[in-house]
Fold this sequence. Notes:
Mean pLDDT of chain A: 85
Number of helices of chain A: 11
Low-confidence stretches of chain B: none
Mean pLDDT of chain B: 87
Radius of gyration of chain A: 25 Å
Largest interface: A-B, 77 and 75 residues
Number of strands of chain A: 6
Strand content of chain B: 25-35%
Distance between the termini of chain A: 57 Å
Helix content of chain B: 40-55%
Shape of chain B: elongated
CATH superfamily of the largest domain in chain B: Multidrug efflux transporter AcrB transmembrane domain
Strand order of the largest sheet of chain B: 14-15-13-18-19
CATH topology of the largest domain in chain B: Multidrug efflux transporter AcrB transmembrane fold
Oligomer: heterodimer
CATH architecture of the largest domain in chain B: Up-down Bundle
Number of domains of chain A: 2
Order of helices and strands of chain A: HEHEHEEHEHHEHHHHH
Largest sheet of chain A: 4 strands, antiparallel
CATH class of the largest domain in chain B: Mainly Alpha
Strand content of chain A: 5-15%
Largest sheet of chain B: 5 strands, antiparallel
Structural class of chain A: alpha+beta
Helix content of chain A: 55-70%
Number of helices of chain B: 15
Radius of gyration of chain B: 33 Å
Distance between the termini of chain B: 18 Å
CATH class of the largest domain in chain A: Mainly Alpha
Strand order of the largest sheet of chain A: 3-4-2-5
Amino acid sequence: MRIISKTTRIDFLSVKRRRIALGLSLLLVIASLGSLATRGLDFGIDFTGGILLEVGYPEAANLDAIRSNLGAAGFTDVQVQRFGRDTDVLVRLPPQPGTDADEVRTELRQVLEASGESVDLRRVEFVSAQVGSELAERGALAMVIALMMIFMYVMIRFQWKFSAGAVAALAHDALVTVGFFSWFGLPFDLTVVAAVLAVIGYSLNDTVVAFDRIRENFFALRGASSEETMNTSINEMLARTLITGLTTLLVLVALLVLGGESIAPFSIALIVGIVVGTYSSIYTASATALELNVTAQDLIEPVKDPSLIDDLP
Amino acid sequence: MNKYPWWLNTLVLVIVAAGCLLALPNIYGSVEAVQIADNDGSAFEEAKLAEFVRVVEGAGITPEDSYLQDGRVVIRFDSTEDQELAGQRLREQYSRDANIATTLTPKLPNWVRNLGLSPMSLGLDLRGGVYVLLEVDMVTAVESRLALYQQDFADRLREARIRHRVDLNDQQITIRLTGSDDVEAAREIIQRADPDLYVEEGADGKSLSVRMTEAQIQARQDFAIDQNLTTLRNRVNQLGVAEPLVQRQGVDRIVVQLPGVQDPNQLNKILTATATLEFRLVDLSGDEPGSRQYPGRGGESPQVLKRRVVASGDQIIDAESGFSEGQPAVFITLDSAGGERMLETTMNNLNKPMSTVFIETRRETVMRNGVEEQRTVKIEEIINTATIRGVFKNSFQITGLTPMEARDLALLLRAGALAAPVYKIDERTIGPSLGQDNIDRGFNAIKIGFLAVIVFMAIYYKAFGLIANVALFSNLVFIVAMLSFLQASLTLPGIAGIVLTVGMAVDANVLIFERIREEISSGASPQNAINSGYEKALSSITDANITTLIAAIVLFGVGTGPIKGFAITLMLGIITSMFTAIVGTRAIVNLVFGGRKLQSIPV
């Protein structure tokens, strides 16, 4: 079975098409940045500090009653939302400085049980603002270090123009994924940071496989222009790119549907990232390298001075 | 062509067998058990095991099995009732010397256990429990050391008959003298006390300022952390939790993980409590130098107490709560130095009053210039003042507490004091129902995801797809085997990592199979196509996996908590999938298709 005909000859990288693609990527990046600047991210308590309770009620929970009970007890700035099932509720509060966690927990439990039913405190998290900002810093640091190391690896294995293309594609994927979370106001927690880094790994995987074929073809198809060579390579790898994307999306959809509410943001980030990453490894990475005038010569090792070889015993 | 040498086939078989063996412990499920660990960390012997079993059998319970494991005694039971009752009996007899925990233990057959194999350990988000991150107050750690110097200098200067005033401010001790003549003598005294201290003469020519050097401060902080780790371990051991974890994190943090604990309230009191005791004589004249007024706790009347401490909490080697004449009491045993001091004091001060001071540090939030600031407050209150009626040495009792306070105080005194106060900065509690839900959901996702992928692969690549599926399944087995072997905790993000690996691991096979198809369509014979397909895809596969591995390693190195769990399974998955997808599938392909004439291949 095949999902695409034997050898496609789609012209991905003509000047016009690749400029359109780069324009589209640029637009996505700008939209993401704009959304991040204006709407920001809905950071979870991992980053902001605060209190989070996952509460299981015996019957469908009345969110309004919970909100007004909490308000009456003096808790301000409270977020109450359903969490997966009707009976499950997620309550988020800002940090309560100067108060004892044990007292707050006891008080919250009393408020939540105000209407007479006993609740199941499935999860309670107290994160101080200090720990929150540290976790945020480390997440950002991880992202920067990963991009730098990847840039270096691709530079050693290929050449800086490919590195630039790969890192442009990765930064693009990471930004658009995070932008997606900002645009749709999805909760952004530590697992999403992990997912974005996994997206970077995945998209890079895709990009490197394409580059590998491009390098091979630079030598095999002598005489062809860089554009032709890269086009051929991408077409040759198209089936693989789509199939791997498909199997990965299959498992991620399973994770999204079955994995439960707390892992959902993670699954969404990966699904978005893999769709964007597949697109970017076809377009952004190669188009950037082409715009930097990558040629076969860039991949040929400089010939060593023959006199040095003569000197060898 | 396309034949693996016999030794390579054997190697593949051996590796697969080893993977299956390491993963095996995970299929047995778990059983109710009581785990007993010696509090001082030493290993139990067979004789002790027999003794514990006799106690259990004495209560009319027949254990399902019992054995020693890593120096701990494990006794398994058929029912929760038996387990509870046995735990209770053992605690009654041994709770002072051992950590007795009722828990679930893997129901491994003897031969598996004897090989030293164990199943994956589950993270708190899968088994439920409490995670607490504590910060050690390093400033107080250093200041408490300086306070000891302060007292020491005052004593030495008084002995040398040098008039002085010693103050402690901003991590610096200032000694004011009456004239410049005493400066050299005072400096000598200080340097005799500790030659490493940094001593500086004041601008007025008649004072000295003393500070600890960077190295001394560092040493003091390390000591504080180590001492706190020991103390916290002792305290946690008294809670009866199986496999508690107390571990240093970074410069000034301590992580405490208690699987299975549901209510963190009691735990928090025990972890962060700094409660300790001091015994001081009452200053009846009220004007001795250094004497000061202490408030009373509850109904106790305030007293002026002498500066000299008769005995303090760190000299207490044992403490037990109970009742004395109907009142809650703590029975105290001092070490020999403290005992000598107490003997001497009581002998010389018969019929004079002595007070017990209860000391606790708390962190308060205060507003300073409109900014919230955390401040450490030391609370010292008299819980009891009694007239010395007779001479006593290292055993005595104190009263003046509620029964609950007496119990907690006894526990804290037994476990030892914290060298510096700790504060909770992060606390996460996961209920058991959520833990089980997470396991069920996670494994469901793996099952369905795996199923979807193998169906797709079988349809798309036919026989080769089936071979890739065998590799994919063995990859799962290998991940479980490695997690069990490394005893790395499996968490929900870890499960997500496995799910992701299932999707990505087929990539290597997709690359190979697509390459084989390409070779065939460009006219290669089936055998040649297989060979060059594997060969030519190799560099792509390696590059692709190494780059993903880089991302996973960075995640592992920089990430915390959930990120680490994800990174571990991702890393393991990448490494094991390289083996299964390249070597594993090739071995099967060679076995099935290798070395014979083929018209076509089902790819």
